[in-house]
Amino acid sequence: MNGEQFSSELVNALRGATRVVALTGAGISAESGVPTFRDAQTGLWSKFRPEELATPEAFQRNPKLVWEWYAMRRARLREVVPNAGHLALAEIERRVPTFLIATQNVDGLHQRAGSRQVLELHGNITRTKCFSEDSPVAEWSETGEVPPRCPRCGGFLRPDVVWFNETLPEEAFAQADAASRACDLFLSVGTSALVYPAASLPLSAKAGGAMVVEINPESTPLTARADHFLRGPSGRLLPALVRAAWPGVSEQLPR
Length: 255
Ligand code: BV8
Prior knowledge:
Number of helices: 10
Helix content: 25-40%
Bound molecules: ligand BV8
Shape: elongated
Radius of gyration: 19 Å
Strand order of the largest sheet: 3-2-1-6-7-8
Distance between the termini: 19 Å
């Protein structure tokens, strides 16, 4: 299916939707220059797989290495901006009665694109918390020690993200699952659909009777279950889909 000619069933479903949920993964930020999890790691990190670094065990084994991996990713975030895919989702939120983004991403780009209803299922890399207390830390004194230490208890600080084998924020996931079961249109955008429980959300949407649409240059384990598979980059397909549903959409949406 060439992305720019969408079926009328899909276009009408978006235009007439009352409750839309979007699950996003690293792929929606790829065109902003943020490497996806499945992209090969480069430089110092090329010998590590993300799954080997994004765990509490990795942090306990080598807190400095894991802290510095996140510090590098945070620094890279300061160079990137939301892309047309993020902006298109923010535009859909302005045009449908209820819209929710459940994102696996930790980059904060949806909020920077203007989306307001965003659930961060895996946390946010720009926030920091105490590893021992598991509570947020906004400021700390830089002593040159890496990782820095909690000003309250002296334990190591860590990024406020959900690592593998850590549980997701309960309230956020429960809200995302309920919204998925109740929605009439579910968009799965830029995710390999491999990481649970986030990957269960499109299945919950399907069980609730929603139309499930997947946007990805590659097929995934979800593709066979999706009602529509739009093969291609979300930075191109999402704005095109929004313009197909609402032809008058302001030119602010990059082509
Ligand atoms: C949990 C934050 C309960 C940190 C992340 C066996 C079976 C099933 C499940 C498990 C299992 N063994 C273990 C588990 C549980 C595990 C899991 O699912 N493992 C998988 C790998 C099998 N899940 C967990 O551990 C979760 N917690 O289950 O708690 C529990 C508690 C205690 C003990 C046991 C269980 C926690 C998961 C959260 C982990 N944290 N991130 C950080 O960012 O550093 S996950 C991390 O990887 C990302 O957040 C993201 O969610 C995930 C990668 O997924 P994607 O976002 O999809 O990115 P990916 O690179 O994979 O794919 C990108 C896609 O984009 C590709 O498809 C590509 O084609 C596409 N793309 C590329 N360019 C574009 C594009 N698409 C559109 N446009 C483009 N231009």
